[in-house]
């Protein structure tokens, strides 16, 4: 079959790492038939109807990319979800809980569990903690030769998860030599350094000696970047529409409570000013008239009661939790690969072992102590014997003389325990895969075919352990009740040594929080080859089987029952403990390529999967490639895909959590659920939320299609465009409260109420199959390249992605909601309207360089309750988040014998992430920037040295 120049170009249209490697493209244009991502049919390299992006090893090195997470962040086709470590560095809730230490891919914004990640064309185990998506940290990037990204659904070939697309990390093969590589990436400002060292050795030559052994080992470290190391992290910007909604502060706020009589109130209703009508609660001495001011203590400022529409908080202070969270989690990653390949006649046998050990430390704000019947009751209140008691009383009674009769009663308060330390959860994940297999020719019925077969076992085992910042609840409550610990320290004051020793004695550091193990055993095989000839060429076909067993185990608190003392705010997950669950998958698939004419090819594929638990599912696919002229090609596909529910979505128990935000009103008494304290029935409410699994869940399904064109009128210019649409049905969703409020009439049964009074008690957010989601977009690419008279080679290009539609409906009966394109959403994928990567490259002699621009469009920002209700209009408010655009520059030099040096500058103009209101009043997470879009490190300098010993 003749290889056409335009067919070669197809797989290059939209290469994520934007460099046109002309020499490499020519070298790969051999006549050998190979299997490409998205198909089981062996064919001439890069020939096919599906858009496959290829990122070479050199392209990764030129951009200073040493981790899979860094690579995914540069892909325009990847969504902007909460899939990276920065997005999970703070307090999390709902589906994000238990996601410690994981970083995932999210092609076309369909979600991490709808993106299939392969290693050398075969599956690896999902992350042990959550069991629903592959952890990119487990990929041995030091051994990767190239990455292929299929931008199309592929359930007809691969089965579950391949809705958004497929990412295939392809490892080195037949490498000979020994080389060492060192890489460093240092930010101009302090924090967030990245480094990696690798050693790669290969012995033997498959072509001449019939064998090859490849061994790689790598160790990388990402240092922590704290929020207080970057000025753009500042949640106290009420003039721009954001402020902190937490009164858990280093200098405590004083509360009235119904738990018992206290200094501020005997009844639970706060005091009023003389002649006033507002009952104040959460009062700080610093914010009272004549006080030192909230900002007299680092990280604190005035609580903005107007922005949060909470008049009773008029004398409160708040503390910026965003500055305490790490913006880049510290990661230590050690991985290794060993692969042996042998030729036995025309057959090739191989054995491969991959292993990794990843340590991630999640660090965020210190715990807060707050009055509660279950944790800090009246015996933990600050007693009248405490050293600060009289000062507190005297400052309060000047403003609220009505409390004078309460002198001697203990003080109820909300306090941020800075001396306890930032909360830290350390997660260690060990992952690996052992694979044996063979491929080669096979003669059946007098015809020659190609076969491949493999047997693998993969695992991922994770454990999360409590570090600093977690304390045993009762011992801490008892310690606070002694009055030795002073929650009312003024600026410059410190706790006594006795108080510090008392706090330290309550530490729970070292307790294993929970752990999980995901295991997969797979036997797969396929046969492909020519069936017969048509006038336009041979009909090619492939058939295959895929047998898998998936197992998952999740343990909660592993301490003995007698030793299970409560730990303050430790997110134990006992309700979701699973001893061991498993399912078997049996699949058979087939694929046929038919050359209808010399210019038109059709490909048909179908796969049938049989799952223990919910039965069978059949998914077809059809694609075409039509090339009427050498300079013009049309391509397109239609396919049906599915995603099986994860074990957690099926079998998790019910977790009940209090909703602490100030942005929720009861939709039964306040249509729309928007908080507005001036409207009766629209006051903020704090129901319980229920999350968990449903054993009756079925798979979610998708229908998708694409059509594209590739145009190459000359050998120095090419362009492409692909229009695509994905329609998901029976979506497996745990809806956020905003969606449920907007669709209250369809979710009334999920709002749990007191049968007598109708009071809202809880909201059921457990997983369910319902609704529909539509995503539509267009991906474009353009390339120019040429050569100067000096022999220097240059190229410029652009790859872009335009999101045309993103909308969903909660149930099949509900209308579609407003477009999610360019609009802030708390959870899931942020639908940016336009993303692109543009580049210019230059190569002359031993020198080469690249200038790259990465661009992400702005969007409509979050609106806090006071602004939404019209009670306040911030002076510098903008409803739009600015665009994010950075430039990277790298230079490569190969003039030294056996040594290659690459130096670069990332974010040349030191562009900060744009201001964005990401603060979540429910969890206290987030701040003034969006980790789903921007890199917080700022300008950094990279240097890579690669030395070949032989």
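-> sequence recovered:
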């Amino acid at each position: 079959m003749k290889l056409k120049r335009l067919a070669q170009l197809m797989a290059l249209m939209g290469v994520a790492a934007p460099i046109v490697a002309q020499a490499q493209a020519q070298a790969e244009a051999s006549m050998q038939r190979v299997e490409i991502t998205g198909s089981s049919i062996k064919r001439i390299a890069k020939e096919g109807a599906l858009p496959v992006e290829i990122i070479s090893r050199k392209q990764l090195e030129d951009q200073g990319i040493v981790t899979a997470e860094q690579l995914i962040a540069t892909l325009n086709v990847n969504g902007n979800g909460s899939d990276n470590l920065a997005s999970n560095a703070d307090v999390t809730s709902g589906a994000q809980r238990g996601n410690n230490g994981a970083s995932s891919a999210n092609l076309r914004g369909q979600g991490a569990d709808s993106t299939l990640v392969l290693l050398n064309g075969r599956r690896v185990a999902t992350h042990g903690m959550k069991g629903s998506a592959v952890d990119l940290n487990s990929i041995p990037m030091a051994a990767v030769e190239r990455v292929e990204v299929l931008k199309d659904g592929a359930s007809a070939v691969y089965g579950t998860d391949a809705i958004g697309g497929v990412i295939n990390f392809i490892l080195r093969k037949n490498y000979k030599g020994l080389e060492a590589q060192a890489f460093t990436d240092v930010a101009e400002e302090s924090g967030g350094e990245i480094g990696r060292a690798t050693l790669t050795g290969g012995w033997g030559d498959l072509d001449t000696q019939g064998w090859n052994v490849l061994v790689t080992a790598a160790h990388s470290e990402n240092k922590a970047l704290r929020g207080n190391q970057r000025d753009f992290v500042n949640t106290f910007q009420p003039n721009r529409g954001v402020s902190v909604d937490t009164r858990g502060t280093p200098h405590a706020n004083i509360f009235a409570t119904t738990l018992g009589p206290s200094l501020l109130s005997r009844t639970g209703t706060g005091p009023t000013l003389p002649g006033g009508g507002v009952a104040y609660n959460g009062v700080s001495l610093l914010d009272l008239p004549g006080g030192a001011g909230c900002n007299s203590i680092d990280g604190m400022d005035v609580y903005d009661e107007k922005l949060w529409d909470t008049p009773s908080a008029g004398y409160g202070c708040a503390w910026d939790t965003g500055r305490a969270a790490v913006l880049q989690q510290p990661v230590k990653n050690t991985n290794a690969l060993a692969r042996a390949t042998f030729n036995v006649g025309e057959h090739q046998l191989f054995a491969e072992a991959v292993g990794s050990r990843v340590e991630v430390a999640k660090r965020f704000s210190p715990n807060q102590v707050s009055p509660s019947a279950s944790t800090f009751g009246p015996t933990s209140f600050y007693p009248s014997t405490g050293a600060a008691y009289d000062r507190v009383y005297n400052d309060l009674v000047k403003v609220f003389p009505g409390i004078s009769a309460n002198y001697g009663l203990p003080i109820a308060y909300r306090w941020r325990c800075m001396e306890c330390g930032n909360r830290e959860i350390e997660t260690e994940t060990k992952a690996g895969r052992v694979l044996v297999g063979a491929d080669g020719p096979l003669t059946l019925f007098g015809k020659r075919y190609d076969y491949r077969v493999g047997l693998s076992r993969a695992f991922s085992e994770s454990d999360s352990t409590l570090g600093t910042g977690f304390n045993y609840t009762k011992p801490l409550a008892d310690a606070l009740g002694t009055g030795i610990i002073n929650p009312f320290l003024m600026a410059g004051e410190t706790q006594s040594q006795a108080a510090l020793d008392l706090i330290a004695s309550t530490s729970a550091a070292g307790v294993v929080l929970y752990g999980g193990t995901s295991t997969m055993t797979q036997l797969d095989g396929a046969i492909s080859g020519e069936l017969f000839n048509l006038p336009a060429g041979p009909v090619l076909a492939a058939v295959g089987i895929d047998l898998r067993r998936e197992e998952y185990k999740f343990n909660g608190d592993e301490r003995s029952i007698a030793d299970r003392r409560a730990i303050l705010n430790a997110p134990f997950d006992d309700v979701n403990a699973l001893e061991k669950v498993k399912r078997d998958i049996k699949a058979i698939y087939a694929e046929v390529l038919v050359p209808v004419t010399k210019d038109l090819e059709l490909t048909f594929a179908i796969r049938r999967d049989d799952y223990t638990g919910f039965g069978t599912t059949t998914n077809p696919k059809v694609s075409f490639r039509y090339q009427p002229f050498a300079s013009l090609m049309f391509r397109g596909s239609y396919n049906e895909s599915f995603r099986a529910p994860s074990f957690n979505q099926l079998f998790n128990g019910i977790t009940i959590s209090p909703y602490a935000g100030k942005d929720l009103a009861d939709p039964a008494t306040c249509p729309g659920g928007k908080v507005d304290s001036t409207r009766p029935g629209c006051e903020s409410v704090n129901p319980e939320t229920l999350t968990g699994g449903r054993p009756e869940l079925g798979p979610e399904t998708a229908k998708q299609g694409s059509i594209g064109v590739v145009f190459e009128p000359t050998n120095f210019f090419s362009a492409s465009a692909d229009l695509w649409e994905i329609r998901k049905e029976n979506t497996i969703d745990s809806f956020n409260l905003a969606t449920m409020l907007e669709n209250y009439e369809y979710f009334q049964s999920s709002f749990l109420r007191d049968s007598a009074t109708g009071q809202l008690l809880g909201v059921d957010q457990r997983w369910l199959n319902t609704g529909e989601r539509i995503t539509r977009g267009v991906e474009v690419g353009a390339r120019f390249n040429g050569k100067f008279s000096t022999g220097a080679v240059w190229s410029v290009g652009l790859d872009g992605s335009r999101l045309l539609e993103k909308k969903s409906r909660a149930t099949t009966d509900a209308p579609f909601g407003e477009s999610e394109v360019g609009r802030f959403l708390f959870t899931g994928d942020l639908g940016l309207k336009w993303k692109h990567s543009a580049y210019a490259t230059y190569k002359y002699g031993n020198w080469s360089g690249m200038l790259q621009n990465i661009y992400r469009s702005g969007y409509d920002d979050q609106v806090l309750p006071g602004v939404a209700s019209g009670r306040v209009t911030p002076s510098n408010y903008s409803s739009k988040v600015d665009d994010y655009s950075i430039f990277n520059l790298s230079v490569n030099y190969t003039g030294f014998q056996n040594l290659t040096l690459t130096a670069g500058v990332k974010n040349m103009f030191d562009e900060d992430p744009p201001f964005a209101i990401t603060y979540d009043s429910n969890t206290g997470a987030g701040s003034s920037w969006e980790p789903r879009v921007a890199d917080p490190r700022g300008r950094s300098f990279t240097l890579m040295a690669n030395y070949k010993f032989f």
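Confidence is low (pLDDT under 50) at residues 1-31.
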